[in-house]
Amino acid sequence: MHRYRLWTRLTQWIILIPLMFCMVPLASAAPALLGTTCINQQGVIIASIPLQGGKFVCQSVVKITQANLYVIDFKNTSTIARFQHEIFRDGDLKDNLSEEKDLLSILKGGLSGNEHNPFMLRHGRTVSLNPGTYRLVTWVQSPYYLTAPTLSITDLASYQQQSNISAATSLLLLGILLGLFIYYAALGALPGHLTERMYAIFIFGNLVFHAAALGAFNQFFHWHWFYLTGLPLLIANLAYVSFICHLLGINQFHRPRLYQLSLIASSLLIALIVLGMIFPDWMLEMSRTGIVIFLAFGLFCGARLSMQRQIIAQLYLLATLGFGVLGMMAISAADATQHIFTIEQLGLFAVTIHAILLSLLVAYKLNRLHHEKEQLLVELQNTRSLALTDRLTGIPNRHALENKLLKLPLHGCLMFLDMDNLKYLNDQFGHETGDMLLTLFSRILNDKLSEYGQLYRLGGDEFAILCHEDDVEWCQHQLEYTHMQLHKEGFAGVGASMGIVFAHEATTTDALLRIADKRMYENKRIRKNRKEMMQVLHP
């Protein structure tokens, strides 16, 4: 029974599979572009168009099997200054008259041309062709080529779908680079943010080059000149070396060998900039060499410092390796058969991913620096607090008082206090008892003063109070209350002498302290004489 069901299912699938293939609509026959031959200005046949620029003419045979609207484009590159497609009916041309008669269409365009571009960031041109064989003659001219241009012909529907995806992706990537540039340019404008400044220059150079190479300037701003657009890329390479040094902490004092290597890399890049200005047709080749130089320098520095377990260097090494892999993929895709993305768009993708990764790395470093700064501020604040606090009593000390006296308002008042009989307690009962008295005295009086005054311990048995001149009597009452509380706690005969001076009585801090100290000792003598008199009257 089970075998019967198994064979039944297999029979059903065997019958359904051919039916499924029959139900799928057959794809229309794609146009074929055959036998492309290119000739340079000297009339010499060449295998491929060189990257150093020039004017070339290519001839191809186009075979059309279905009447439709077709798009002629360069499937792998957009860095072309001018081009012209001439479509002829197939046939042997004997003279110029027959050539003009067989000419069906002339299609022009390019980054330096004024012609309207019907497709976003692409060089596609539409032509209506009936079944048959045609001859396509293409003239191309450019100061340099990012890769050898390769012709393609596609039906309009397929081309529109592909060009929409590629254009949307390119605009998104350019927008990301623009946003990163604005952010880091604003951040780099602040003092002390040289890393972000160099990074902004690196992003800007790549943004200008890719926007020009893809035709964004031509499309949106009608900027038709791009002869030296490789120069910002060379400057970006130079800024990248400086960016690496600041990111990884490489300077003449810290890691001097790597710093010397950075000087060599920078010198080579400066030489490439000079050569690129002298030989503009080779500028793009100079830019390629510059990328190799800064990538080699960055990988070496990242690997060297990663072995020292530096987290920033390790993260940078990963980001650079990712950029290198994407860059190699973009270069190897130059001769790809698919034409949904050009090499300029693949390069833009690699640069944008690298820029995003580096942005995350810079943000991580800034966050670490901010965290370390906060920790240092907390430690500094704790140290400052310890330096301004009396360890025994926990109230501000003499240094804190001197800082406050520098900003003492005219209505301020300084009160000096000197405790009585502390030395007697230390001698008779030990320093632990004396410390207990100091702690109890400062706690009770400081709590009673509240917001009307601040108690300070100057050292030993000396204290001070800062208050408003209108609160002097209040502070005196709180001192008397503290005396009574100390007596209740068993510290009989303990008190404090007081010397009061007002801010308007002296012009300097030292003068205030001298007056307060003098008056405090006068009050101590008065209190001592009064106590002795009371002992005589009441023996």
From TrEMBL:
It catalyses: 2 GTP = 3',3'-c-di-GMP + 2 diphosphate. Keywords: Membrane, Transmembrane, Transmembrane helix. Signal peptide: none annotated. It comes from the Bacteria. Its EC number is 2.7.7.65. InterPro entries: 7TMR_DISM_rcpt_extracell_dom1, Diguanylate_Cyclase, GGDEF_dom, Nucleotide_cyclase, Rev_trsase/Diguanyl_cyclase. Gene3D superfamilies: 3.30.70.270. The keyword Cell cycle does not apply. It holds the Pfam family 7TMR-DISM_7TM. Residues 410-536 form the GGDEF domain. The chain crosses the membrane at residues 165-186, 198-217, 223-249, 261-280, 286-303, 315-334, 346-364. It is an enzyme of class 2 (transferase). This is diguanylate cyclase.
